[in-house]
Amino acid sequence: MRAIIYCRVSTNKKTQETSLARQKEELTKLADRNNFSIISIIEERESGYEMDRDGIFSMLDYFAGGEADVLLIQDETRLGRGNTKIALFHQLQKLHVSIYTSLHGGELEVSESDSMVLQIVGIVEEYQRKLQNAKIRRGMKRAVRDGFDPAKNLSNRHQASGRDRIAFPMDEVVQLRQKEMTFNEITKRINNLGYPVSKATVHRRYQEFVNS
Predict the structure, then answer these.
(1) Which of the residues are catalytic?
(2) Which of 8-22, 26-40, 99-113, 156-170 has the lowest mean pLDDT?
(3) Are 28 and 95 in contact (CB under 8 A)?
């Protein structure tokens, strides 16, 4: 599996340099013990309460793009503190990222209180999605009552200025992802099946599928 190492200290003081070096050393050893290949080592000097961090966005880009599978941190406070930590936990869960810490010597054990908050956030997000879908359905029904013909709209879709939506076997993508293949590997497999689609498109459609 491919890993991102994330190290953080809260200040730019010289005394913090040894902490960053120690974190990197511990996490490199953790990757070696678990046979992880290190894709990137991100070092950051920012407050854990701050969400707007270059290193965090860089780390999330790796996972969103399917370029890495595992996050390695010294402990959960290195990722963030307070609401920032919960928000990042939630985002990483949605991206199906495993988190390993040198403190635990393995996969992170989320505290009972944090787990409860994450469950609540997930439930709220799900009901927000259902509410939005219900509003869309009601709007469509109202439009049909007012004379809108969706079949006619679809029949003229080829006249639209935008590009056609590329079709490819989504069930194949899901099966390959369940086998822990990367999106790069999945895209190559789909291309070999005769579907000229990009990795970004495969990743986006997969996210749409799992969140639908």
Answers:
(1) 10
(2) 156-170
(3) no
**CA 52 → CA 6, 33, 47, 208, distances in Å?**
15, 32, 10, 26
Q: Strands 37-45 and 98-101: what pairing?
A: unpaired
Convert the pLDDT of each residue in 95-152 to its tens digit: 889 999 988 888 887 767 777 776 776 676 676 777 777 777 777 777 777 776 656 5
Q: Write down the pTM of the prediction.
A: 0.58
Other Cβ atoms within 10 Å of 196 Cβ, number: 9
Q: What would the pLDDT profile of 26-57 be if each residue is shown by its tens digit?
A: 999 999 999 999 999 999 998 988 888 889 98
Please report, as a single letter, which amino acid is at residue 16.
Answer: Q
Rounded to whole angstroms, the Cα distance separating 184 from 181 reads 8
Residues 6+ apart with CB under 8 A from 19: 9
For the CA atoms of the chain, what is the radius of gyration? 21
Distance of alpha carbon 132 from alpha carbon 103, whole angstroms: 41
